[in-house]
Design goal:
544 residues, mainly beta, 5-stranded mixed beta sheet, 5 helices, elongated, disordered N terminus
C-alpha cells in the first residue's frame, strides 16, 4: 500500500478543452492519447479532458471522427501540478490528411474561439476572454470591459454600451437578469466581480429573441467559472489617495452604529414605536400633545454632524476555486470570492444651485432661486461575496451559485442656504442647514442551473431558476435648517423660510424570480451545420 501511494503521489495533471475550429463549440467524445503510454481520456460535454500521468515531457494525439488529427508536442508534466493546455481547435476533414503538429506553448490563447463565436452568432456581439484578461493582469471585471470596443465604464463600475446611458444597458450574471444595487441605476456594479472567477465577458449590441424584453441598447453578460482549469488562490489589496479628498480634519460625520463598517446598521438608527404604522402620532391625527411629544422625543436627538479626519480608500479581495474528480468519474468544482471596499469623498466647497425662469415670459435669462454652499462628506462601504458549486456527469451539468452584496453609505453636510426673494414663489431667506443621511442596500441572488445533452449531443436542454431578493433602507434622514435673522437676531425655525426640523424614513423591498428554459437541436441544413433553438423565460416581480 505504501508503494502504491508513493506512485500515485508522483503524478501530475494535463487538462485542456477541445473545440471545433469552424464554430467555436466544444467537442464531446474526442480521444486524447498520450503517445508511448496507455494513458488517455475522452472529452466530456464541455469538451474538457483530464489525464493524470507521471512526471515528464509527452506528446498528445487528439483525434475525432471526420476531424483532422492533431499532435501536440512538448507537453510537460510536473509532480502535483496542473498543465492547462487551454483550447485545442480541431478542423473538419473531408479527406484523409496528415496530422497537424503543434507545440503545447501555442495552445494557451482562446481569444480565437471568441472571434469565431462573434462570426457565427446571428446578432452582433463583442467581448473578452479569460485568457486575454489573465495576460493583461487585470483584477476587476470593470477594468477588463474598458478594453472592449464601444464600451465605457462610468465611475469605475457602471457599464455603458455604444455611448448610450444607463437606461439602455443591462447587466446579467450567467445569462440571468439581476437588479441593480443602486435604485437609480439599471445595471449592476461590475467592479465587484474579480476576473479570477470570470470565464468571459460578452456584450450583445443587437437584440435576438432569447434576450430580455427590456433590452434596448446593450447587454453585458458576466459568465463565471464553474470548473477552474487550475486551482485559484488569490488575495488582493489596494489603497487610493486623493489629496483633495483624504486626510481632511473637517470631514463631517456623526455617530451611527458599530456595524456601519460592514455596510449595515445594527439598530442604532431604529425608529421609535409607532413610526412603522400607517398613522404616526401628529396633532392633525387627533393625538394629544403629550403623545406627540413622547413620540418625537424618542427619536435620536443628534441633528448636527461633527468633524473628524478621513483616511485612505482601501479594498481587500479573496478568490478561491478548484475542481476534483470523484470516484465515479464525475467532477465537482467550486468557486468563492469575497470583496470588501471602503471609500470617502469630501467637498470643502460644495455648491448646489437651483435656477428658474422669470415671471416675465419675455425674459429668457435664468435667475437663481436657491444656492447651497458649504461642506459635504460621504463614506461608502461595499461588502460582497460570491460562492458556487458545480457538478458534472457524462451527459449533464448542474450549477448552484449564491451572491450577496451589502452596501452602506453615510452622508453629512453643513450648508449655507441663500434663497432669492426676487425669484417667483420664493420667500427670500438665509439659512444654516444640517443634513444627516444613511442608506443601506442589500441584494441576494441565487442561481440553480442545469444543462443536459441527449441523442449524441444533438439535443441540448438548458434551464435556470434564479430568485433575487433586494432591499433598500433609509432608516432616519435628518434635515435641520436654522433661518438666520437679517437684523442680527438669534437663528430660529421658520415655516415660511428654512422650515422646521424634519425626519424621513423609507424602505424598498423587491423580489425577482426569473425562470428560463432553452432547447437546442443541432442538425445539417443544405450540407452546413445549423441549429434550431426555442424556449421561454417567465419573470415574476413584487415590490413593496
Amino acid at each position: 500500500m505504501g508503494v502504491a501511494s508513493l506512485a500515485h503521489a508522483q503524478t501530475g495533471t494535463i487538462r485542456g478543452t477541445v473545440i471545433e475550429d469552424a464554430t467555436g463549440e466544444p467537442l464531446p467524445g474526442v480521444n486524447v492519447l498520450v503517445k508511448g503510454t496507455s494513458k488517455g481520456a475522452s472529452t466530456d460535454i464541455d469538451g474538457d479532458f483530464e489525464i493524470n500521468i507521471s512526471e515528464g515531457t509527452y506528446v498528445l494525439r487528439v483525434s475525432y471522427i471526420s476531424f483532422q488529427t492533431q499532435t501536440i508536442e512538448g507537453v510537460q508534466v510536473t509532480v502535483d501540478e496542473i498543465n492547462a493546455l487551454g483550447t485545442i481547435r480541431l478542423q473538419q476533414s473531408s479527406q484523409e490528411l496528415e496530422e497537424v503538429v503543434v507545440t503545447a506553448s501555442a495552445l494557451q490563447d482562446s481569444e480565437a474561439a471568441l472571434i469565431t463565436k462573434k462570426r457565427k452568432v446571428p446578432n452582433f456581439i463583442d467581448g473578452i476572454s479569460a485568457e486575454t484578461i489573465g495576460k493583461s493582469g487585470i483584477s476587476k471585471a470593470s477594468e477588463a470591459l474598458k478594453k472592449v470596443t464601444g464600451v465605457s465604464v462610468e465611475g469605475g463600475k457602471y457599464v455603458y454600451v455604444r455611448g448610450l446611458g444607463d437606461r439602455y444597458t443591462k447587466t446579467t450574471l450567467n445569462s440571468v437578469d439581476i437588479p441593480s444595487l443602486d435604485p437609480n441605476k439599471n445595471s449592476v456594479q461590475v467592479d465587484i466581480f474579480p476576473t479570477a472567477l470570470v470565464d468571459n465577458l460578452v456584450i450583445s449590441k443587437t437584440a435576438i429573441a432569447e434576450m430580455p424584453a427590456s433590452f434596448t441598447g446593450g447587454i453585458v453578460n458576466i459568465q463565471t467559472k464553474d470548473f477552474p482549469e487550475t486551482p485559484i488562490y488569490e488575495v488582493s489589496a489596494s489603497i487610493g489617495y486623493n489629496p483633495s479628498m483624504h486626510f481632511n480634519d473637517d470631514f463631517l460625520t456623526y455617530e451611527g452604529s458599530n456595524t456601519d463598517f460592514l455596510g449595515f446598521d445594527n439598530g442604532a438608527r431604529e425608529l421609535p414605536a409607532g413610526a412603522e404604522g400607517e398613522d404616526i402620532p401628529t396633532p392633525i391625527s387627533g393625538d394629544s400633545e403629550q403623545a406627540v411629544n413622547n413620540f418625537v422625543n424618542r427619536f435620536n436627538p443628534t441633528l448636527a454632524p461633527r468633524s473628524d479626519t478621513n483616511l485612505l480608500d482601501y479594498s481587500l479581495g479573496l478568490s478561491l476555486g478548484n475542481q476534483y474528480n470523484l470516484g465515479n468519474g464525475d467532477k465537482l468544482g467550486y468557486i468563492f470570492s469575497g470583496t470588501y471596499r471602503t471609500s470617502t469623498t469630501h467637498y470643502s466647497n460644495y455648491r448646489l444651485g437651483e435656477y428658474q425662469t422669470q415671471a416675465d415670459p419675455d425674459q429668457t435669462e435664468l435667475i437663481f432661486a436657491t444656492t447651497q454652499n458649504g461642506v459635504l462628506s460621504r463614506r461608502n462601504v461595499l461588502l460582497g461575496g460570491l460562492a458556487g458549486l458545480a457538478y458534472k456527469t457524462d451527459n449533464s451539468k448542474y450549477r448552484l451559485t449564491g451572491m450577496h452584496l451589502q452596501n452602506g453609505e453615510s452622508q453629512a453636510s453643513n450648508l449655507l442656504v441663500i434663497n432669492s426673494q426676487s425669484a417667483p414663489g420664493q420667500s427670500g431667506y438665509t439659512g444654516d442647514a444640517y443634513n444627516l443621511e444613511y442608506a443601506e442596500r442589500g441584494i441576494t441572488n441565487i442561481l440553480l442551473n442545469g444543462t443536459h445533452f441527449f441523442d449524441n449531443s444533438k439535443w441540448e436542454i438548458d434551464w435556470k431558476i434564479s430568485p433575487t431578493f433586494s432591499n433598500i433602507v433609509d432608516p432616519d434622514i435628518r434635515n435641520t435648517t436654522y433661518t438666520l435673522s437679517q437684523t442680527g437676531g438669534a437663528p430660529r425655525f421658520s415655516a415660511g423660510a428654512g422650515g422646521f426640523p424634519s425626519r424621513l424614513w423609507r424602505y424598498l423591498d423587491e423580489v425577482n424570480l426569473v425562470g428560463r428554459a432553452d432547447v437546442t437541436r443541432q442538425y445539417q441544413l443544405f450540407g452546413s451545420d445549423a441549429s434550431f433553438k426555442f424556449g421561454a423565460s417567465p419573470v415574476y416581480k413584487q415590490r413593496d
